[in-house]
Write a structure and sequence with these properties.
There is one protein chain. This protein has a domain of 215 residues: Zn-dependent exopeptidases (Aminopeptidase, 3-Layer(aba) Sandwich). The strands form 3 sheets. A 6-stranded mixed β-sheet has the order 4-1-5-10-6-9, sandwiched between helices. It has a two-stranded antiparallel sheet with strand order 2-3. Strands 7-8 form a two-stranded antiparallel ribbon. A hairpin with a 4-residue loop joins strand 2 and strand 3. It has 330 residues and is an alpha/beta fold. Helix 5 crosses helix 10 and helix 7 runs antiparallel to helix 10. The chain contains 10 helices and 10 strands. Bound molecules: zinc ion. Zinc ion binds next to loops.
Length: 330
């Protein structure tokens, strides 16, 4: 959901890109994959991209209880995806290769760092005094964090964000990226929005994505990406990240739409799936390219049916991942 109780930005604040929109762009990923086709590795990559049947594709369905995600789907059962296929199998007995103690990361994102920020925390609702504390976001002061929304049946946004984030991490790691989380169900609440931004900054992240789902009235459907506005004040200065963050956001929007089949939000962003905001500490304080994604509306029954589906969440993770890969030129 939105990260405060303020009303959504007026439609005029939702800026539309003057450049060719994301939905008019060719998929650079598809081109890149096609270029790899002759190699042994490509078949595996292609399978990952096109079928979405990676090792994490069929994890057990998390229960609706807040604590369940700690033992649920995500990173653990999909770690095997980091085991890259062995192109060397065909080039048998290459005599000279010394045994490397620890193979460096391989893949299109080798050497890249991606910070994933699972929105909210399932414990926040038990720690209201802590998360209500005001923090400095440069341009203003805001609550440290919020509880997030739920579906009508009680599936928490914070469970959703963690699950999609873990699936995304598995996919990104399989492509060689170093992935840093702002939290991983390893703390009782938070972190605060200023700390979430700081984690991305201190990791020197090449891209940062904050994962959310919205909580607005039924009938409002679809996803949107929130891009940083140009702001300057206190510790906030987004002048250097506005451009690359838009690129990141457009690529995620296009890939998310393709991967999930979801449409851009029908209630803001003028159908572009892109919204610019100047009131989010997580964006204002970032010095690295960063966007938020609102994957759908938890309060709409049709969107909720998707958000509560592990198979759909895997597609969501693939869309986010492919957008990041496109942005990083992988
Ligand atoms: Zn949220």
């Amino acid at each position: 959901m939105r990260y405060d109780d303020s009303p959504p930005p007026p439609e005029s604040a939702a800026s539309v890109s003057p450049d060719p929109p994301w939905y008019a762009r060719r998929s650079t990923l598809a081109v890149a994959v096609a270029a790899l086709a002759p190699t042994a590795l490509a078949g595996w990559v292609l399978t990952q991209v096109l079928t979405g049947s990676g090792p994490g594709g069929q994890p057990p369905q998390p229960k609706a209880l807040p604590a369940s995600h700690t033992a649920g789907a995500g990173a653990g059962d999909a770690k095997s995806s980091t085991t890259t296929p062995s192109p060397a199998a065909s080039a048998s007995a290459s005599a000279s290769a010394p045994a490397a103690p620890a193979a460096p990361a391989k893949g299109p994102l080798a050497g890249r760092t991606v910070v994933i920020d699972p929105g909210h925390n399932t414990g926040n609702f038990k720690h209201t005094s802590e998360i209500d504390r005001q923090v400095d976001i440069g341009t203003n002061r805001k609550e440290c964090d919020t509880t997030g929304t739920t579906t009508n049946s009680g599936y928490m946004e914070a469970e959703f964000t963690l699950d999609v984030s873990r699936r995304t991490r598995t996919l990104l790691e399989s492509k060689g990226a170093k992935v840093v989380f702002t939290h991983d169900a390893d703390r009782p609440w938070g972190p605060c929005i200023d700390e979430r931004a700081r984690i991305g900054n201190e990791a020197n992240a090449d891209a940062v994505v904050s994962v959310h789902a919205d909580g607005v009235s039924a009938g409002n459907r679809g996803f949107h990406i929130i891009l940083p506005a140009t702001v300057k004040g206190g510790a906030a200065d987004t002048s250097k990240i506005v451009g690359p963050s838009r690129d990141l956001g457009e690529r995620i929007a296009g890939n998310f739409a393709r991967s999930t089949g979801s449409a851009p939000a029908n209630y803001l962003g003028s159908g572009t799936g892109l919204v610019v905001r100047d009131d989010l500490g997580g964006l204002n304080l970032s010095t690295r390219p960063k966007v938020f994604i609102e994957c759908g509306n938890m309060r709409d029954a049709k969107d909720a049916a998707q958000l509560t589906s592990p198979q759909w969440r895997q597609k969501a993770a693939e869309g986010i991942t492919n957008g990041i890969v496109g942005f990083l030129g992988g």
